[in-house]
Amino acid sequence: MEVTVSGIVKQFDRFPALNDVSLKINSGELIALLGPSGSGKTTLLRLIAGLEQPTSGRILFGDEDASEKSVQERNIGFVFQHYALFRHMTVAENIAFGLKVRPSGSRPSKAEIRKKVSDLLDMVHLPGLEKRYPSQLSGGQRQRVALARAVAIEPKVLLLDEPFGALDAKVRKELRRWLREFHDRTGHTTVFVTHDQEEALELADRVVVMSQGKIEQVGTADDVYDRPNSPFVFSFIGESSHLPVTIKGGQILFQGEPLGISDSGPDGEGVLFFRPQDVHEVTDGQALTGKVTATRRLAGTRIAELDISADGEAHHIEIEVPLETQVQIGGELRFRPAAWKLFRNTK
Amino acid sequence: MATLDRSPQPRSRRFIDAASEPLPAKLALLTLAILFLAFFLVLPLVVVFFEAFRKGFEEFWLAINEPDALSAIRLTLLVAAISVPLNLVFGVAAAWAIAKFEFKGKAFLITLIDLPFSVSPVISGLVFVVLFGSGSLLGPWLKSYGIEVLFAVPGIVLATVFVTFPFVARELIPLMEDQGSGDEEAALSLGASGWQTFWYVTLPNIKWGLLYGVLLCNARAMGEFGAVSVVSGHIRGVTNTMPLHVEILYNEYNMSAAFAVATLLASLALVTLVFKTVLELRFGAGNAGGRH
Amino acid sequence: MTTSTPAAGWKWRQTSVIPGFGLTLGYTLTYLILIILIPLAGLVWNTAGLGLDQFVAIATDERTLKALRVSFGTAFAAAVVNVVFGVIVAWVLVRYNFPGRRLIDAMVDLPFALPTAVAGIALTALYAQKGWVGALFAPLGIKIAFTPLGIVIALIFIGLPFVVRTVQPVMEEIDKQVEEVAATLGASRFQTITRVILPGLVPAILTGFALAFARGVGEYGSVIFIAGNIPYVSEIAPLLIVIRLEEFNYAGAQAIATIMLVISFAMLFVINLIQAWSRKRYGYA
């Protein structure tokens, strides 16, 4: 089932949580809404679910306008960060709930429900736990029961709100892998909200990067990592440093000093973004010099923090240096970015 | 929890907030609840004041100033003045022991403290009749020293203490448990003695809950009927508290006088409730107590 | 909060840096023993001294049995009414916001703060044949005051705060997300309330019922004015105890009191069981 979000605006009192958001989710896709807190990602998810109403704009499931439908009618599966399992019901009763509340016309028989519950428990790798109560399960188990419960009603769309946020790191990693497998096997259109970029990049077919109620960029993991289209996306995804620069005569200058890189375009001002692994120490050509203030080891390489302040303005950047290079705190390094992105200031 | 709707009205009439009832159902429940409360709670209160002033303010004043009524008021105040401080000290001690320490048998202790709530007030009075009556061991022994317990003030005080001692403790225990021992441990680490810690650290933290507990304890102490009725002997002008005096007036069909004295007690109850509301407004629910 | 000692073995309390344990616990226990336990023990001791035959004779006496029936029957009926309306009142207070909510919330404590005798005469004045409410029912031939119905009304007044105040904190803890999830799974609002919310409240409701019931059984002051007190018909057990006392029939009074005490303790025990069971089953009380 494809989902279309069209021109959605959502205001809480006078606070705009979402400001003209449009998005097309393909059928069967696993898509992540990624952003810091306050970006509006959870609000968007709840609007798709029908737990909130938009101030203006529409949400379409396939060709149908979902705004005419209540939560109950939309047939979506929702999983909360803190599981929201029914504490007084067994695991089996929890999973069967969506099937049992159907009107008698469309309700499956008891035997069918029992079989379905058992199949689902197998699918989420929790066989035999029908008679347990939620208080007797671990966090990871509870979340899988919550997912089984949501899937039991054969939803058109599966919506997950920071599904692994309440779990500890190791369980989180396991469940991430498991969710990807689960999605590949069942093929539900799945939207999940997260503030963890590693999770989004690892799991999702496409990532929707959001900030302050707007969508900054939509694309695959490679798209948002290698081709970020805004300063926010560049700095939010992966490691980065940035410097305010001026462009003069095709040269990019930092406080009057050339960096050794050029840009074809008119003169002006902007911000230069680059990643530590794209900046190297150089011995020839034009380059900036920075003073080393700290170093840290990162996997098979080393990161050096450089201070390139001048005229009282503090600027720090990080560059990657090979392990063999001797780096002294207080020493100086000349560096030049091999890959970068320049965002010009618009007037 | 309170459904303060933050979003503007939905465009579609078929939209239902997932965690709330449709408006007609809400209004129905609200009306039902308010009618029930008005009928069962407010109406009796209104009747008390209405009947008291039915014959005019003059009659009201006369009823209150009558000698037996005045001595009943004096006795009630005396009993409260003795019982409430006793229960206050108990309440603080019990709450301290329960909230600041972990020990086996704590649950049993708490159940013991709850005892007067499940025991009929008549039985609460009866136990003292058994203990100090003419057929007992203690009664005649104390009498030989000139100490009368039953049908005299000491008996009334004992029965009142029995019935009202949980109040302060029950207000303080959840409050102090919520607050934990962090503040006290900090004070001790800074060199304060136990008493100093209690006076300067604990007491200010619990003062509003304590005050409400004392008010409630006082309201109940002044209003206790069943237990006092059994031990007092109903000796007019001597061992009648205000509630007993109300009963006497009522049984003599002196309605307006009975209600007149009753208004004094009802006003005390209202003051207690107003105080609780003020506390909740200022400090939020939970600080003023509410777990009975 | 406490520092545990390195010693192994059974320790009845954890050591703590906070002073005053001995003093406060000692005072508390002494107070309890003097004021509560000794008097109660005295009663049970005395009753035991009656001998089994006499005890059984008093216990099975027709008037005693009828009085116990009246007390327990009316308390049960009142507790049931209080459960139904107490839950509604708690729901409205917790979930709705309306002008005067705090005031009404405070009003719920009125039966708790109001002296029982005052409540007693007020309710009688209201429900007597010529009273404001009694007059409404008189033409229908329904008499409220001086009948067991009047007792039930008085006990409804007395027991309401017990139900509301027990259920209210639990209702406040209800997770809104659980309700939202039920809606996403297709449950109507009615289904969500009956299948998801109310079952979670059952322990609190049961406890509130038991508290209101226990209180109603022993209630004296607010009942004796409105009850009529006709032996075998509308006479409550506590009143029978008082009557026996006035007849100097101490044995009779004590026997009935002991029976009521035993039942009260049984009720307390049941309440504790309910809370323990629900804590085990659901993880909360």
Compute the separation of the termini of chain C in Å. Answer: 23 Å
The number of distinct helices of chain C, counting runs of at least 4 residues, comes to 13
Order of helices and strands of chain C: HHHHHHHHHHHHH
Oligomer: heterotrimer
User: Could you give the order of the helices and strands of chain B?
Assistant: HHHHHHHHHHHHHH
Q: Which class of secondary structure composition applies to the elements of chain C? A: mainly alpha
Number of strands of chain B: 0
Characterize the biggest β-sheet of chain B.
none
Short recap of the structure:
With 292 residues, chain B is mainly alpha-helical.
Question: How is the secondary structure organized here?
Answer:
The complex is a heterotrimer of chains A (about 350), B (about 290) and C (about 280).
Chain A: E1 3-12, E2 15-25, E3 30-34, H1 41-49, E4 56-61, E5 64-65, H2 71-74, E6 76-79, H3 91-100, H4 110-123, H5 139-152, E7 157-161, H6 169-186, E8 189-194, H7 197-203, E9 206-211, E10 214-219, H8 221-226, H9 231-236, E11 241-248, E12 251-254, E13 257-262, E14 268-274, E15 279-281, E16 288-298, E17 301-307, E18 316-321, E19 332-337, E20 341-344
Parallel strand pairs in A: 3-8, 3-9, 6-7, 7-8
Antiparallel strand pairs in A: 1-2, 1-4, 4-5, 9-10, 11-12, 11-14, 12-13, 14-20, 15-19, 16-17, 16-19, 17-18
Helix pairs in contact in A: 3-4, 3-5, 4-5
Chain B: H1 23-52, H2 57-65, H3 67-100, H4 106-113, H5 115-118, H6 121-132, H7 138-143, H8 153-164, H9 166-179, H10 182-189, H11 194-223, H12 226-232, H13 242-251, H14 255-283
Helix pairs in contact in B: 1-14, 2-14, 3-8, 3-9, 3-11, 6-8, 6-12, 8-11, 8-12, 9-11, 10-11, 11-14, 13-14
Chain C: H1 21-48, H2 52-59, H3 62-95, H4 101-107, H5 110-113, H6 116-127, H7 134-137, H8 148-172, H9 176-184, H10 189-218, H11 221-227, H12 237-246, H13 250-282
Helix pairs in contact in C: 1-13, 3-8, 3-10, 6-8, 6-11, 8-10, 8-11, 9-10, 10-13, 12-13
Model description:
The complex is a heterotrimer of chains A (347), B (292) and C (285). Chain A is built from nine helices and 20 strands. Chain A is an alpha+beta fold and 347 residues long. The model of chain A has no long low-confidence stretch (mean pLDDT 89). Chain B has 14 helices and no strands. Chain C is built from 13 helices and no strands. Chains in contact: A-B, A-C, B-C. At the B-C interface, helix 1, helix 3, helix 4, helix 5 and helix 6 of B face helix 1, helix 3, helix 4, helix 5 and helix 6 of C.
